[in-house]
Structure formats: C-alpha cells, structure tokens
Write a structure and sequence with these properties.
By secondary structure, this protein is an alpha/beta fold. The chain has one domain: FAD/NAD(P)-binding domain. Helix content is about 40%, strand content about 25%. The protein has nine helices and eleven strands. The strands form two sheets. Strands 1, 2, 6, 7, 8, 9, 10 and 11 form an eight-stranded mixed sheet that branches. α2 packs parallel to α9, α7 crosses α8 and α7 runs parallel beside α9. The longest helix has 18 residues.
C-alpha cells in the first residue's frame, strides 16, 4: 500500500540534498537552451562541477519549438559534428544544411549534460548575482520562477561559483541585472553597455556568434543568443549550429581559465 507522506518525504529529502550538494560549484549556467546544455556537457566532462538553472518547466529553450512550432531544427555543416557527439539523427536536405528532430535533439542534449555529471534544476530563475569586494561575480542569486511570476516578496537563495554563464537567450537576464546593480560596471562590448540584438540575418548572426561568445565582465560569460544580444549581433531564427558551437566555445574558455 502506497503512503503519500513517504512519497513526499523522499522527494523533499532528495531534492534538498541536491540543493545543498550544489551550493558551491565551479560553474553556474543560467538557461538550459542549446548553448547552455552543450556548455554544461563539456564543462562537466572536463571535471568541473557544473550547475544549470532553467526558469521554465521545460528544458531546451527555443530549440524545443523548432521553426514556427514545426519541431524541426537546422544546423549548418560546421556544427554537424556537435550533433554527431550526441548520436542525433539528421538528414542533409540541402547541401551543407542538416535537419534534425527538435524533440530528439533537446532530449539527447539534456541526457548528454546529465550523463556528463552536470546538475540541472528547472523552475528556478537567476534574479541577481553575487559579487566580491573587487566587484567580481562569484555566484548566482536564485528564486523559484513561481515566486517571480506571482510578484511575491520572497527572499532568495545564493549559490557560489567561480564562473557564471548567461545563456538566457534574447532577454539577457543575468547580464542585465548585473549591469544595473554593480556600481560603475562596464561590459566587454564595443560600447561598454548592452547593445541589444539586431533584426534577423542568419548569415551574419551565425558568423559573429563565436566572436560575441566571451567573458563580458569579470566572472561573467555569455553564450548563445545572449551573446549576440549583449554585443549587438543579429538574431538567427531556427538554425542552431551557432548555438551549439557557442556552448562549446564558452566551455573551452572557462576550462582554459580554470585549469591554467
């Protein structure tokens, strides 16, 4: 006979253990879209303790909906090798354009991150950043997404890390709050400020995404669409090669730094 209180107890105990075990990590990632998921896999495989917070119930960001709710995604030939790492099935419909199932892609990217050792928490938003005496970012301040949506005044929790990645997409949520709250802060962008994303141009947007994927403030990195939104790049639509490569690049930047 099932006991509902035992079920509740098991959930509460195991979840709070996960929270406590991940209060201190090497890298925190905000946003479980394709860039965040790929970054978490590479970081965890390199032996770095990696925690990923996703504000929504679902994982995968914009990739899950494909193009116009047609759950198909496209990657260009340069990024095909990333999908191959996850054994994601794809077809070359046009020369150098590969199409894959969006749901399969998100499922396997998620499983790849978990299997590598990354820890994913959903329904949690990064609402602020933790800084040290030199105004370097040293962690994330988090709260339940339901609290944010209900506009309740509920004090948050703080998780420490050596690096923080903003992979929140178009909204650039973490960089925005950091720039607003850290006195006299300047970003590593041409203007020193958030430049905002430009209109759709997949060719230009994909080309510059690896340039905009970088450390934009001490301890704070950007990846995926957040990178182009930070440095004034174009949006790209349902082609996801740049997102995958951006996740790989930001992971390599952090691995090089933390292992140097």
């Amino acid at each position: 006979m099932l006991d509902e209180t035992i079920i509740t107890k098991v959930i509460i105990q195991s979840y709070t253990k996960d929270l406590i075990d991940n209060l201190h990590s090497d890298v925190i990632i905000a946003g479980a879209g394709p860039a965040g998921l790929v970054a978490s896999k590479f970081l965890a495989e390199a032996g770095l303790k990696t925690v990923l917070f996703e504000r929504r119930l679902s994982i995968g960001g914009g990739m899950l909906g494909g193009g116009m709710m047609f759950n198909k995604i496209v990657v260009q030939s340069e990024a095909k090798r990333i999908l191959d790492l996850y054994n994601i099935k794809m077809s070359e419909i046009e020369k150098n354009y590969y199409v894959a199932d969006a749901i399969e892609s998100v499922g396997k990217l998620t499983a790849g991150a978990i299997d590598a050792g990354a820890k994913i928490f959903n329904l949690i938003s990064v609402e602020d950043v933790k800084i040290d005496e030199q105004f370097r970012i040293t962690g994330a301040v988090i709260n339940w997404t339901a609290v944010e949506m209900a506009n309740l005044h509920v004090d948050p929790m703080t998780f420490e890390s050596k690096c923080l990645i903003d992979a929140t997409g178009h909204d650039l949520e973490v960089v925005s709050v950091a720039l607003n709250k850290i006195p006299n802060s300047k970003l590593n962008t041409p203007t020193g400020q958030i430049m905002g994303e430009l209109s759709m141009n997949a060719e230009i947007g994909e080309k510059i995404l690896l340039e905009t994927t970088k450390e934009v403030y001490p301890g704070l990195y950007v990846a995926g669409m957040a990178a182009n939104a930070c440095s004034g790049g174009q949006r790209m639509g349902p082609i996801f090669g740049g997102m995958l490569l951006s996740g790989e690049k930001v992971a390599n930047l952090i691995i090089e730094r933390l292992n140097s």
